[in-house]
Design goal:
2 copies of one chain form a homodimer.
Chain A lengths: L4 E2 L9 H7 L9 H17 L7 E6 L2 H12 L6 E5 L2 H12 L4 E5 L8 H5 L8 E5 L1 E2 L4 E2 L2 H11 L2 E5 L18 E5 L10 E6 L1 H9 L9 H8 L10 H16 L2 H20 L4 E3 L8 E6 L4 H12 L1 E2 L1 E2 L9 E4 L6 H16 L4
Parallel strand pairs in A: 1-13, 3-4, 3-5, 5-8, 8-9
Antiparallel strand pairs in A: 2-10, 6-7, 9-10, 11-12, 12-15, 14-15
Chain lengths: ~350, ~350
């Protein structure tokens, strides 16, 4: 079978160097050799996130949700008051996590497809918040929020800032120290373009202090254990070793190819090419503030989910469907992973053919 | 570089079919195709665990510890009273989890290297326990506990039975229904011989009822979500898709080769061969009740950790070191994963050479 082309938002396609590591046996990991690799992973993530010397990186074997929950339960208490940007199912997930763990919060329910504005944030000025929580790219609807605006607001209100950048890291500009971020989350299967199974967090000094001050309420997600073991390049529990080796190879490859900025430009070029060409097809872009990682589209004539199924079953192409009430209305086309302009060509050729067959 | 031979207790070596899947792109997974694979995984795990039609299997992206904690927090409450077999660092981990989550418990601290006896258990008869928790193979010290004894005790005392069989499943006899087990845990990187990153649980009807009756206290480890999504062969969060595909290939391979019983016999033959031959070397076996998965050894003349380092650095062989106070005293040789008698030959050739060099 010919290999599928993957335009989803993750898992995405991997480079040969990542796939080669997947083809090998997993090494034993309680060794100096593996510790060295983990410390290099930390160093390169910090470099690409533009973090500072005192910041730390921890790696969790789990999906992005594991790190979202770990961030909340290790740093917030019932004495905090969080402000959550809720613009879709991932914002809703932070709300759910705060509910389960009795963290006081208010949420800003965003209108679908729209970015943040200063006017929206101004209403929440000086209201006693301690913490700001945002999925900087609300992947479910393809809306990217303005980090400069958020940074200004947090600085003015002295807020602890938690940024889920799972699908945004390496695709959009994000500067950990400059933007005053305390926790930044990402995952292995997005722009890092490795198999899913690892999520990771960059932690500021302030975040580390909050972690050490708080009593453990979940052993597996305890970041005190992760930080302590991380000092020597290890993890408290057996991690997804192979994926951590793949992340290492991928980070070094990005470094060799010019670093995070070059990777961002590469992804942006793919997104720009796609967005220019999709104008001639019966779709409407449904976000006024996009990440480079994904384009959310509303098909004008047919069901979004039907397009997903036809592309998958008849053209060997995955695009990303939506769930729930957006299922028939919205589909998403990703620009991360080992994609090229020639893959865009193949997607548009498929759309041309579908148009001819009256399937668009 | 020639590939290392891996005699650790996990991650272990994988078959070609598993490595081939690792060499491929991760597919998009919110599809009917992936659901089918997951339902097949559930079916084969249930078959190999000798579970019943009403039992369910859930897959957690995380290490074994994630499933150990998920088992406790989803089924036990402050009204339970658990009896924990604590024979090493994995028994201690259950104690730690019960402490964090305020689950009342008593522990039976086992003497190192010794199995359970009826006399030990009899002392805990009729003491108001609701739950029995055991690492059936305490991997840290290589002691395998008698499941028939435990089953009799639990039956008599009507106990909910949680069995961590992480390193024992497929290596030792275990019959979910016959042994009255309510939760059985295992992981991808032990006898399943896939990369680490997935742990899984078989859940009895009684366990499922406890799960649905209990309020969620951790979103990521919420087994209600896992069970609900599992009905349609999906997971609530993006799972380690590649490892789940590898588990599928491996389960089908075991099935084709005669099922769980054949795999157990294959592992036992490797363990028996090793145990017969190690008698002629300056080691003492330090367990009176072993799993087929691993042989724990005390070297009579030199440091256990030095042997680990020499084999790794000079012979291309990993054996499993111990941590903490056992570091210099005990090492472990595993018999799970894609090992053969010819690998045993290579290990003994290395030991012969070390003997000549006065390193044993």
């Amino acid at each position: 079978m010919e290999e599928m082309i993957n335009f989803t938002v993750g898992p995405v396609m991997s480079d040969d160097i990542v796939k080669k590591i997947g083809s090998q046996n997993t090494p034993y990991f309680r060794t100096a050799e593996f510790s060295e690799i983990m410390l290099e992973n930390e160093k390169l993530i910090k470099k690409f996130a533009k973090a500072s010397a005192d910041d730390k990186v921890v790696f969790i074997t789990g999906s992005g949700t594991a790190s979202m929950e770990a961030a909340i339960i290790n740093t917030l208490t019932e004495n905090d008051k969080a402000l959550i940007i809720n613009g879709g199912s991932f914002g809703e997930r932070f709300v759910q996590i705060c509910n389960i763990h009795h963290i006081p919060y208010d949420e800003i329910k965003m209108e679908m497809g729209h970015g943040l504005t200063k006017e929206i944030l101004d209403k929440y000025d000086n209201k006693g918040y301690t913490t700001f929580i945002v999925n900087i790219h609300e992947t479910s609807t393809g809306v990217h929020y303005d980090l400069d605006l958020i940074h200004d607001f947090c600085k003015k209100n002295k807020l602890f800032l938690i940024v889920d950048a799972i699908s945004s890291f390496l695709a959009d500009e994000i500067e950990f120290t400059h933007h005053g971020i305390d926790i930044m989350i990402t995952g292995s299967q997005k722009a890092l373009a490795c198999p899913p199974g690892i999520s990771l967090m960059v932690l500021s000094k302030k975040a580390q202090k909050r972690i050490y001050d708080k009593e453990t309420c979940c052993l597996y997600l305890d970041l005190k254990e992760a930080l302590k073991n991380g000092e020597r390049g290890q993890t408290p529990w057996t991690p997804a070793v192979t994926i951590l080796l793949q992340i290492n190879a991928r980070l070094k490859e990005i470094e060799v190819n010019g670093g995070a900025e070059s990777e961002r430009k590469r992804i942006k070029a793919l997104a720009d090419d796609f967005r220019n060409r999709i104008k001639n097809y019966p779709f409407e872009i449904v976000s006024d503030s996009m990440s480079n990682a994904v384009t959310p589209l509303h098909p004008l004539n047919v069901s979004a989910y039907d397009i997903f199924l036809t592309l998958k079953d008849e053209y060997g192409i995955w695009i990303c469907p939506n769930g729930g009430e957006l299922k028939d209305k919205v589909l998403r086309v990703g620009h991360i992973g080992a994609l090229t302009i020639s893959d865009n060509d193949k997607l548009f050729a498929a759309l041309d053919d579908m148009k001819k067959r009256n399937l668009l």
